Amino acid sequence: MNDCFAPEALEALRRDMLRFASLQLRDDAAAEDAVQEALAAALDGKRKFEGRAALKTWVFAILRNKIVDAIRQRSRSVNVSSLSAEEEAMDETFDSLFKPNAHWNPGKGPKAWGDPEAALGQEQFWAVFEACLKYLPANTARVFMMREFLEFDTDEVCAELKISSSNCHVILHRARNGLRRCLEQNWFAAGASSC
Prior knowledge:
mainly alpha, Rna Polymerase Sigma Factor, Chain: A, Arc Repressor Mutant, subunit A, 9 helices
């Protein structure tokens, strides 16, 4: 277990943590602070680490709490309600998937994903998921991660980002569709999960 806390292991973990914190906080200094606080807390509490979960999972849970605290404490707001050109293009793409009655156009619906539970258990899936998340527009990924990973209520996301509830739902819809399409192409496509 002490090998988990070796400097080289923590440095590799720190890079992943910093990337995640930067996405959420949109402030490199605040992200660095959150990561340092999370690592300090992990090192202070390493006797509590029982190894029932991966070290990365345990440290990221600490980081998650630090990020939630930072988001709730800061007073400045970020305007994600203005659409970027990339987000507008996503709307056009998604509109082409549906008929006027809101049903799927033939051949445009989601493809069968096989056994999703088995895929979730594979470490490679999460690497592909993270890569797909990076290809979302930054504001879209941020709203998705606040809602789904940091587990903020929709009202909390809206208050923090100064957006309406309907705008939040539209952004979440875009994120989920973007992730679905990316995963279908890069993971669930025939043979994509074999490497």
